[in-house]
Description:
This protein has 355 residues and is α+β, with helices and mostly antiparallel strands. The chain is 37% helix and 26% strand.
Amino acid sequence: MGAVLISRWVAIALLAATTVLGVSTIGALSAANAVTTTPTPSPSAQLNAGSPVYPAGPSDVVFGAYIVSVQAVNFVTSTFTADFYFWMRWSNPELHPDERFEIMNASGNRGDQLTPLEVWPIEKEPDGTFYRSFHYQGTFSFEPDLADYPFGNQVLPIVLEGTLGGDYAINFIPDTTPVATDPGLTLPGYSVGSVELTTSVFQYATNFGSFGNAQTADYSRVVITIPIAHPFWSSLVKYLLPLMLVVITASLIFLIPPRLSSARIILSITSMLTLVSLDGRTANEMPSGDSLMLIDVLFILSYVFIVATIFHAITQTWNIRNDEESLGITPHWRTTVAYLAVYFAVCGLTTYLFI
Length: 355
């Protein structure tokens, strides 16, 4: 009897130990499953799983340029051509700024060429950054400032902009030497100033229809400015000297005796037609517009001068008398000098006010 009781108690103890061990094992397995279980991705996460990962903020891209040549400044089309190199250096392997930029003022001519100088894929530099350079030959648009023409200065810009904005914006920063120029850089007919490279943030007043962007979008820009100037003396000889010669020729009408009215009329008409021809040649070199340039005002003053001399000559002819002394040449030198003095004084004042 005692042996039976002992056997029962042993069986109960074994059953309890087995139960405790089973419960502990189940708890440990549950805890392990809770740690290692990965939640199922959402549909949007699954859809974007293959997209490139962009940095969550602006990433710096070092930018530099080398200007080889500038040619063919055309005021009629407001364009110029340039040949230059530029390069980028960045550290974020996911950024790829060499694929995400746009030349903003490129005219889109078929002859424009953008040539990458490094073979894809881009390898890391010894300092851990990525580097890529390009050679660009193309035509660019600009806004000429012709108020002082044929004098004054012009600025030829080359504008490059990153195509990533907002939270993923590329942030261009100038290189240690931002821009350099070829020692032989010249532009026929102009003097070239010091070339500069600046960076800025340009804000568009739109989100381009994207629901994920703010009301405005900010994009980093690089602006290379090439200042050029019209040399004073060459502009004076090329544009104003012919104008002055026409005016001086027209003033000789006062040296012709009033009785020779036909010669006076021929000289006046010839001067007027020459002036119209010069005006037309200058207009063909300029873009169409409503604003008056300095050269336009000088032409207007020249027209007024010739009309005034014609009117004065006609008045003298009508007032002619038989007195030979009144028909002499000597007294009319004063009229010629007076007219020219007034004309050049007004032209000089006008040029001073414009420049």
